[in-house]
Amino acid sequence: MAKSGLGQDPQSTAAATVLKRAVELDSESRYPQALVCYQEGIDLLLQVLKGTKDNTKRCNLREKISKYMDRAENIKKYLEQEKEDGKYHKQIKIEENATGFSYESLFREYLNETVTEVWIEDPYIRHTHQLYNFLRFCEMLIKRPCKVKTIHLLTSLDEGTEQVQQSRGLQEIEESLRSHGVLLEVQYSSSIHDREIRFNNGWMIKIGRGLDYFKKPQSRFSLGYCDFDLRPCHETTVDIFHKKHTKNI
């Protein structure tokens, strides 16, 4: 029996599965996720096309690829317009004990050479591990292609015995950043509650738990102690928006 345009070989089956998911996401108006699936499915179909000799099947595949490419392009244009209008919204749900959500993995899509200024609002940059989280976030900003010159941090002041440690830790981070040509401005607020990160290229990221969404490692010599992509996470939600302008703290 002749095979259909998408046959039963592994690549065809994978393409059909991914594109079926793309159509489902599309119908649910989950356009960012649908676009990713469309692009992945199209790539798989192109690989199938390369290995197909039958002219009729090649013609059918080209028609399918063209149809999915047109839809993907329309979604891409729609999302770009949403960004321009300040309406873009993407949500990522991090499940309990999930891995693969280091700061680099989460933020790399939104960092480029146009980023020169960053605002962080997080009431819990107090304890030692939270200071290390903030330091790791700053290291990411230095390593990425962005050219950050100023980082603004709004946090709450520890009222307990760790206040001296908090102030000293942030001062050391400030001095270290200065040696890399980056200014860190720290302000304290007793009423801050929301957690928010903004880049001056218009991206705004709200994480339910702020930067402190990683679980404590099992030991100093367990996987995930150094590489945060391997560190299990607490359950939280990440909401990503795009605004034309960001406000100063």
TrEMBL record:
The record describes its membrane topology as:
Peripheral membrane protein
Assembly mode: Homodimer. Interacts (via MIT domain) with CHMP1A, CHMP1B, CHMP2A and IST1.
Q: Which SUPFAM superfamilies match?
A: MIT domain
Name all MIT domain ranges: 8-86
**Which CDD domains is this protein grouped with?**
MIT_1 (cd02683), MIT_C (cd02685)
- Where is this protein localized, as stated in its record? Late endosome membrane; Midbody
Molecular function GO labels: identical protein binding; phosphatidylinositol binding; protein domain specific binding
Predominant location category: membrane
Keywords assigned by UniProt, alphabetized: Cell cycle, Cell division, Endosome, Membrane, Transport
**Biological process annotations from GO:** midbody abscission
> PANTHER family per the record?
MIT DOMAIN-CONTAINING PROTEIN 1
Name of the protein? MIT domain-containing protein 1
Question: What InterPro entries does the annotation carry?
Answer: MIT_dom, MIT_dom_sf, MIT_domain_contain_protein1, MITD1_C, MITD1_C_sf, MITD1_N
Question: What organism is the protein native to?
Answer: Rhinopithecus roxellana (Golden snub-nosed monkey)
The portions of this protein that span the membrane are none
Q: Name one GO cellular component term.
A: late endosome membrane
Domain of life of the organism encoding this protein: Eukaryota
